[in-house]
Write a structure and sequence with these properties.
- By secondary structure, the protein is α/β, with parallel strands linked by helices.
- It has one domain: Metallo-beta-lactamase, Chain A (4-Layer Sandwich), CATH 3.60.15.10.
- It is built from 7 helices and 14 strands.
- It has helices spanning 57-62, 80-83, 86-97, 113-123, 186-192, 218-228, 244-252; strands at 19-25, 39-44, 47-53, 72-74, 106-109, 136-139, 145-149, 152-158, 166-171, 175-178, 197-201, 232-236, 258-261, 267-269.
- The strands form 2 sheets. It has a 7-stranded mixed beta sheet with strand order 6-5-4-3-2-1-14.
- Bound molecules: zinc ion (ZN) (2 copies).
- One zinc ion is lined by residues 77, 79, 161, 181.
């Protein structure tokens, strides 16, 4: 399917056939000035899915679409740069609704995620039902298939990170796999097989060695894209000082199809 990066109208103004991806945050644990950490809005017909919700993502999201109209939120792992803006996002929902909504939307957390959020809510003196008041809160399992809507499914695979982390695949009008944070992982490669678009982290400038690994270089992300035979590759999860064009060029030497780098606000249809 064709892809372009022009701003294609506000979410919900559907002018496309496949899926639409909006980059809300392309930063790693510390994004550049004015940038956000991990957050990606995926639209398939009228279904809106938020993948991760790191620093700054809630504010960018509500500037373009109501927080209360997000149908599903998936958190890839419980590092702050992937979930901490669930707090302001939850406030945005109750502000928009002038109170508690019907709990139509679902927050999908990794195994153990409910306990992690409960500890955080306790630490910041919020009630323990803070999230459950507005979203149906569930913990997902690798290997399960989740039907999010008619013809739209989600699957997850365990990656290789410093804590348990998951990659997320969405299959609908087209297909997208998001690596989350991971070192090279056969399970993530299997999950991504044949995806129209692979949204892959490329955090490292040099590969990790030794037993403790958790991220990819641009070359490793490109190798993943080749092995999984994806249609196009978009790199993301950059430190504040990353040279994004150099990162793109590094990956393009190894992956022969379209390679782009994410930037906050970028919209692509595929
Ligand atoms: Zn991260
Ligand atoms: Zn992480």
């Amino acid at each position: 399917m064709s892809a372009h990066s022009a701003l294609a109208g506000a979410p919900g103004n559907r002018l496309y056939v496949g899926m639409r991806l909006t980059i809300l945050g392309s930063g790693a644990a510390c994004a550049g000035a004015g940038g956000n950490s991990s957050g990606y809005l995926v639209e398939d017909a009228d279904i809106r899915i938020l993948l991760d919700c790191g620093h700054g993502v809630a504010s960018s999201l509500v500037a373009m679409t109501p927080a209360s109209e997000i149908d599903h939120i998936f958190i890839s792992h419980m590092h702050a740069d992937h979930f901490i803006d669930l707090l302001p996002l939850r406030f945005a929902v109750t502000k928009e609704m002038s109170g508690l909504p019907e709990r139509r939307s679902c927050l999908h957390l990794p195994p153990g995620g409910v306990a992690s959020l409960t500890q955080i809510l306790s630490a910041v003196c919020f009630p323990t039902d803070f999230f459950e008041n507005v979203w149906r809160v569930r913990e997902y399992q690798a290997g399960e298939v989740y039907e999010l809507a008619n013809g739209l499914e989600a699957r997850l695979a365990s990656g290789v990170h410093y804590i348990p982390g998951w990659a997320i695949r969405l299959d609908g009008a087209s297909s997208l796999t998001y690596t989350g944070d991971t070192a090279p992982s056969p399970a993530v490669c299997d999950l991504a097989a044949g995806s129209d678009l692979l949204l892959a982290e490329a955090t490292l400038s040099e590969p990790e060695h030794g037993p403790v690994r958790g991220h990819l270089t641009a070359s490793q992300a490109a190798d993943l894209a080749v092995a999984a035979n994806v249609g196009q590759l978009m790199l993301t999860h950059f430190w504040f000082d990353a040279d994004r064009e150099a990162i793109r060029a590094e990956a393009a030497q190894r992956f022969p199809r379209s390679v782009r780098v994410a930037s906050d606000g970028l919209v692509t249809e595929f």
